[in-house]
Amino acid sequence: MIGIFDSGFGGLTIFKHIARALPAYDFVYLGDNARAPYGNRSQETIYQFTVEAVDWLFKQGCTLVVLACNTASSEALRKLQQEWLPQYVARSDLRNGEVRPQHRRVLGVIRPVIEEAIKITKGKVGVVGTRATIASGAYTRELQKLKSDVTVSELALPLLVPLIEEGWVGKPETKRILRYYLRPLQKESVDTLILGCTHYPILLDEFVLKMGKQCRVLDPGPIVAASLQNYLARHPEIDAGLSKKSVVRFATTDDPVRFNQWGGTFFGKSVKAERVVLSS
After folding, report:
1. What SS3 state is found at 20?
2. For the chain, which residues make up each domain, given as ranges?
3. Topology adopted by domain 110-220
4. Which of 150, 197, 203, 225 is catalytic?
5. pTM of the predicted model, to two decimals?
6. Model confidence band, residue 152 (pLDDT cutoffs 50, 70, 90)
7. Per-residue confidence band for 280, with pLDDT thresholds at 50, 70 and 90
8. Would you say domain 2-109+222-275 falls under CATH 3.10.20.30?
9. How distant is the alpha carbon of residue 105 from its chain centre?
10. Is 215 assigned a catalytic role?
């Protein structure tokens, strides 16, 4: 199975594109809604929460996990891949013909979007996200690794996630706040805008409208889905360990009724979640 993890609902905007691109595969989506949002938490806390989520998904039979969360990808992915995952593999036993533990992988959402931005930018890239994602500097660091002369302007938009989750997407107040937030990027004439939070595609049309025709706004969902398809094609040993019965599970650490009510908005169709408890 493929595990999809986010701190809440936002990862569903990524997952819906992955599910469409890989309809035969089995998935488990986990939203840590009880502890969301992650954006204002410390790096240590974000890392610990992410480890607990990935561990839970591995225990459900997932051999590949996608961190469909920019905050987790920027604050936890590298350490998780370099330190926690090798230790996990070393502790794992090969039982009952299961996929070899060394074939387990954890991927993020930042790299695919950065690679797409580099392809199309004329030299000025804007990034918007949560406070934690922006404070990490992950986007600037990775963008400049691929193109050293690119100019990157990162901007935190802390009010957008709560406004989206409170159902204020179409309200004039939200539009005015977004207009105010984006003025610095407009003044800097960025030609490519990365939505560095998985909630933000809910406001994709507003971002496009506010940034104007001179700026290309990247929707991360289709980009990440295409990148995952390509990854599996390049790694048949990983693909071989993924079950393909078109089974999809949803899990949340909070109220499943609320998850089901809001999940459909983010996923594009109705969802039915179970409640789970995470532990280290």
Report:
1. helix
2. 2-109+222-275, 110-220
3. Rossmann fold (3.40.50)
4. 197
5. 0.93
6. very high
7. low
8. no
9. 15
10. no
